[in-house]
Design a protein that fits this description.
Number of domains: 4
Number of helices: 24
Strand content: 5-15%
Shape: elongated
Number of strands: 10
Structural class: alpha+beta
Radius of gyration: 31 Å
Distance between the termini: 65 Å
Length: 674
């Protein structure tokens, strides 16, 4: 655990220092208030009032005042209170780091008219109904985000009424620009709260400035940035703020020194976490671990009954905090908490075959594939478990439970999303792991230096290979962008996405494709049917091993030759059912006149054998549902013989070819008898 050093006392208590602090405090408070108002007020309203203050200018001014406040912090000694000079007395360099992230998010936000996320309409209706009409008007959404956005929404309503009183045409209907801006500001503030609370948790173990840098890095390097900036009308930023508060409280109560208020606060926050994102129930493992630790006898004055009363009070507080979710979930028009459709699509519908690998590695929202820092964080937690098992093991257990819970959902990818959006709320867990990994690397600089050397040497070897093969021309000036593109493309084709390793290598070994194909094939959204023009650009979506480059015949028809003993097609399908497989193919011409025989296998099981004459032929096969699986399916076409090089040269066909594939389609056959 990090032991803080002695903080130097203030050098002087001079009157000049106190005045300077007071001036900076007042200036910073005014600047922050103006930033909030400017975030809410439409630009056309400012122009109508004769003002033209730009948001980025105000943000930079506030940030400059914050830096000045921290820089002169040692000039005067101030005590906590409400007088100017003590408002921001606790701010230090970490505050500047986190404020810089907030300034980036607020000043760089997209235009107000841009979409704010898939839940924009429902949440705005819920906000307007609760705060302007006094009733719940939206079903199917957790109420937690509405409660956290509420203060910003009410402030926007006050600003809107003031603008209307000034004679400006701004609708006070709960949907106009100030209200939309309130949601944007609220999500940015929630993300800042998440970073600040996580920093408070991390500084128990690591230096404060280092912890702040890690908290900011994961904010800007994870889906939390997207959902506090590009799509703020989603529940993820508010949920991250609550989970960060829960982790901070958990660290307080699990040590045994916290009193009843901290336990009750932990219960309230735990309930609010579930009321904000119900699938974040896995975070309850943290307070439950603290409860288990509370009943382990330790030397101390607290008797067993007292512990039980405190834990019971925390449990009651958690149940009370879940009441808003129950009211909305059971009282809504669709009763989404008990709706069979919601239960089958949101909860443990695929618990027998959880999609853990997809949740972690798939390009369709995989955690590590989209957020490489998460991989670093998990590695850091594993290393931290050796030194701080009471901290790391519950965090790893909670994260593992969350991944298993989300992987057991039929909609494991969360549909339209930026990365693993349903793990955005695990932000504090990953930041603690990132701190652990960063501290370990700083103690071993040779690891970082070796990684840089390997990358540079690998780049040089790749360029040498491309010059040798002619991919990069010589003897003339050229763009290094093209050379870099060739190098990256070659490495990517050979190695696959590095932050999904070793999954691409295992996938390539199993299906006989290059590791780069893992991204487009694994975790792909299933389809009920496929219709592919072989030889066109679209056929790369289904090609497996054993195919030639696309070719074209005299009539302009495009096709591919099947090369080698077995050629495969990889298709991702919905639930198993009988399907009609249709493909057009032409057998290779045999010098001896032997007809070509092809075996059709689906997922390793022989379906049938048929002959391919050396003329274009369409084949229709009904494949029973027992051969198919939900997800990725392999269709294998194995030819009885292939042309030897001399035979192929005489016939004008590729060596090792057995037949050519012209067309492929797969559709439902409807109900069939067993």
């Amino acid at each position: 655990m990090y032991t803080p050093g002695r903080v130097p006392s203030a050098a002087t208590d001079s009157r000049v220092g106190r005045i300077l602090h007071a001036v900076l405090d007042v200036g910073l408070a005014v600047a922050l208030a103006l930033v909030c108002v400017r975030c809410l007020v439409p630009r056309r309203a400012l122009l109508g009032l004769g003002a033209g203050a730009e948001l980025d200018t105000l943000v930079l001014a506030a940030l400059a005042l914050l830096v000045a406040r921290v820089a002169v912090a040692s000039l005067a000694r101030t005590s906590a209170g409400l007088a100017p000079g003590s408002w921001f007395a606790g701010l230090r360099a970490p505050a500047v780091v986190l404020a810089a992230g907030f300034a980036f998010v607020v000043a760089g936000r997209p235009p107000t008219a841009s979409p704010m996320g898939a839940d924009e309409g429902p949440y705005l209706r819920q906000l307007a109904g609760l705060f302007l009409e006094g009733r719940l008007t939206e079903a199917g959404l957790e109420p937690g985000p509405t409660l956290l956005w509420g203060p910003f929404y009410l402030l926007a309503h006050v600003v809107t009424l003031a603008l209307r009183a000034a004679g400006l045409d701004v609708a006070a209907n709960g949907w106009s620009e100030p209200y939309r801006n309130a949601v944007r500001l609220g999500s940015a503030a929630c993300a800042l709260a998440a970073a600040s609370l996580t920093w408070h948790a991390c500084r128990r173990f690591y230096p404060p400035l280092f912890a702040a840098v890690c908290a900011l890095a994961f904010w800007l390097g994870s889906p939390l940035l997207h959902y506090s900036w590009a799509e703020p009308a989603m529940a993820h930023a508010p949920a991250a703020a609550l989970t960060s508060l829960l982790v901070w409280l958990w660290l307080r109560v699990r040590d045994g020194g916290a009193g009843a208020p901290s336990w009750v606060a932990t219960g309230v926050v735990a309930g609010l976490v579930v009321s904000t994102q119900r699938y974040d129930v896995y975070f309850l493992l943290l307070p439950l671990s603290a409860v288990a630790g509370a009943f382990v006898e330790r030397p101390g004055p607290s008797p067993g009954p007292a512990r039980r009363r405190v834990v019971a009070a925390a449990a009651i507080a958690a149940l009370v905090a879940v009441v808003p979710l129950l009211l909305v979930g059971l009282g809504s028009t669709d009763a989404f908490l008990v709706s069979p459709a919601a239960v089958s699509s949101i909860f443990l519908s695929d618990w027998r075959h959880p999609h853990v690998a997809e949740v972690l590695f798939a390009s369709n929202g995989g955690l590590f594939a989209w957020t490489p820092l998460a991989l670093v964080g998990v590695a850091g937690l594993v290393g931290l478990a050796r030194r701080e098992p009471r901290t790391a093991l519950p965090l790893l257990g909670s994260l593992g439970l969350g991944i298993l819970l989300l992987a057991s959902n039929r909609e494991w990818s969360a549909g339209w999303s930026f990365g693993a959006r349903r793990l955005t709320e695990a932000y504090p867990v990953f930041v603690l792991g990132l701190c652990a990994a960063g501290a370990a690397l700083l103690r071993r600089p040779a690891v970082l230096a070796s990684a840089c050397l390997v990358a540079l040497v690998g780049l040089n070897m790749t360029w040498s290979r491309h010059v040798r093969t002619g991919a990069i021309p010589q003897a003339d000036a050229r763009s290094f962008a093209a050379a870099a593109g060739h190098a990256v493309g070659g490495l990517y084709e050979t190695l696959g996405h590095p932050f999904s390793w070793p999954a691409p290598w295992l996938f390539a070994w199993r299906h006989g494709v290059s590791p780069e194909r893992f991204d487009t094939l694994f975790g792909r959204a299933p389809r009920p049917s496929w219709d592919v023009r072989i030889g066109s650009a679209e056929d790369s979506a289904v090609l497996g091993r054993g195919w030639s480059p696309p070719s074209e015949d005299e009539s302009g028809g495009r096709f591919r030759w099947a090369i080698g003993r077995k050629s495969t097609l990889l298709v991702t399908l919905t639930a198993p059912e009988a399907r009609v497989l249709v493909f057009g193919a032409t057998g290779s011409r045999s010098p001896t006149g032997t007809p070509q025989a092809v075996d059709l296998h689906v997922n390793g099981s022989l379906v049938r054998r048929f002959e391919l004459p050396p003329v274009p032929t369409e084949h229709v096969v009904v494949v029973h549902q027992v051969f198919w699986v939900a997800g990725l399916n392999e269709i294998a076409l194995s030819s009885a013989w292939q042309l030897r090089p001399a035979e192929a040269s005489a016939l004008g066909e590729p060596p090792d070819s057995g037949f050519r594939l012209d067309a492929f389609s797969l559709r439902s056959a409807g109900p069939t008898p067993d």
